[in-house]
């Protein structure tokens, strides 16, 4: 991964290049940014630049032995940790059990989400995490001598998914790191990391991608021909992954919109038998997709409240969503916006905690029945 391949984030890239050139490299760094911001891509480019033996014009050369191995994510001094899931094949899984899938995923597109990752490895109905046994692997790998580079580099993607025992062992390693070791933590929810780890890492806040930068990047894609890339960039709110989804004729948002419309119509109409059928379908689609729907529904409830203000600049909905909102938005008001949002947020939390989806969706739907007519 080259710095030049990363969309936007110019100031961050320039700062990274300068600090590396001046040998001011912090041994523990946290790249914190929202989904689709490119924080993983930045960590990869940072690691490659640190290891490059022939740095040129503020970027990796791409031709030295180190860069060639980074191009395959196969450098012996580059290590990865990421959430995995238990399965009949891997009862006590660690990241290396999925390393081939990880390389394919990252090399295809480094802007993917946790949902994309679990779908790719065929476990989207499981709640993946970084288990305790991963800490033993981290210790083993980083206590080895460097094979080729000056630094051993450990990229930890989604460290907020770490088991408590793993977090504690990682903290000890960050406090007493092996010589010439770099920890690059890539997080979308830094507040979920234990405070002691956050406080010991140099923080880089990675913002959502600038809208103009996103438009320019989308215009370079063949599939963007004939599409309104400015509207897509606006709707995606700086999330490159979401922008790519919106480019697809059939994207997950279309499914989510249909399910949201059904939920609101059925709860308002108090059509309980049809509502239970809706619950039954949502209970079968996998936990990551369930959370994706709930997050979408939460955003739509808030967007419908804003829609009532009649200010187009504040609205982040496409034409189909706005067509529904033109009729539905009056039912979202100051009396029910907060309680409905709280029900959706509570459902996201319960799904994340491996609760029973049918019970969670049933309870949520019945509560919205009471709230939607306020």
Automatic annotation (TrEMBL):
One Pfam family in the UniProt entry: DNA_pol3_delta2
Domain of life: Bacteria
InterPro entries in alphabetical order: DNA_pol_HolB, DNA_Rep/Repair_Clamp_Loader, P-loop_NTPase
GO biological process: DNA-templated DNA replication
Gene3D superfamilies: P-loop containing nucleotide triphosphate hydrolases
Molecular-function GO terms, alphabetical: 3'-5' exonuclease activity; DNA-directed DNA polymerase activity
NCBIfam families cross-referenced by the UniProt entry: holB
UniProt-listed PANTHER family: DNA POLYMERASE III SUBUNIT DELTA, REPLICATION FACTOR C / DNA POLYMERASE III GAMMA-TAU SUBUNIT
Protein's UniProt name: DNA polymerase-3 subunit delta
Organism of origin: Mangrovibacterium marinum
């Amino acid at each position: 991964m080259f710095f030049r391949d990363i969309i936007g984030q110019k100031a961050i890239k320039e700062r990274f290049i300068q600090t590396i050139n001046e040998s001011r490299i912090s041994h523990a760094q946290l790249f914190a940014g929202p989904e689709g911001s490119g924080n993983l891509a930045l960590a990869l480019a940072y690691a490659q630049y640190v290891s490059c033996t022939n740095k040129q014009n503020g970027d990796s050369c791409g031709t030295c032995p180190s860069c060639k191995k980074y191009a395959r994510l196969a450098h012996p001094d580059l290590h990865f940790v990421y959430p995995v899931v238990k399965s009949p094949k891997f009862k006590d899984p660690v990241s290396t059990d999925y390393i081939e899938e990880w390389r394919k995923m990252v090399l295809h597109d480094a802007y993917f989400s946790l949902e994309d990752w679990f779908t790719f490895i065929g476990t989207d109905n499981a709640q993946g995490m970084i288990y305790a046994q991963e800490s033993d692997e981290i210790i083993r790998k980083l206590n080895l001598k460097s094979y080729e580079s000056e630094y051993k580099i450990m990229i930890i993607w989604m460290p907020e998914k770490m088991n408590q025992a793993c977090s504690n062992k990682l903290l000890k390693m960050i406090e007493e790191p092996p010589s010439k070791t770099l920890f690059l933590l890539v997080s979308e929810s830094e507040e979920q990391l234990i405070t002691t780890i956050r406080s010991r890492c140099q923080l880089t806040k990675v913002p959502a991608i600038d809208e103009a930068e996103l438009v320019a990047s989308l215009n370079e894609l063949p599939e963007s021909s004939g599409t309104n890339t400015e509207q897509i960039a606006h709707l995606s709110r700086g999330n490159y992954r979401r922008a790519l989804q919106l480019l697809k004729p059939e994207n997950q948002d279309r499914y989510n919109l249909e399910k949201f419309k059904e939920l609101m119509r059925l709860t308002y109409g108090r059509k309980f038998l049809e509502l239970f059928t809706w619950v039954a379908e949502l209970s079968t689609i996998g936990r990551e997709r369930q959370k994706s729907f709930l997050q979408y529904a939460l955003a739509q409830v808030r967007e419908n409240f804003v829609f009532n203000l009649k200010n187009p600049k504040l609205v982040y909905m496409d034409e189909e969503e706005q067509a529904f909102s033109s009729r539905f938005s009056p039912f979202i008001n100051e009396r029910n916006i907060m309680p409905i949002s709280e029900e959706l947020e509570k459902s996201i939390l319960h799904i994340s905690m491996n609760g029973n989806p049918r019970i969670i969706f049933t309870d949520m739907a019945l509560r919205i029945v009471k709230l939607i007519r306020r």
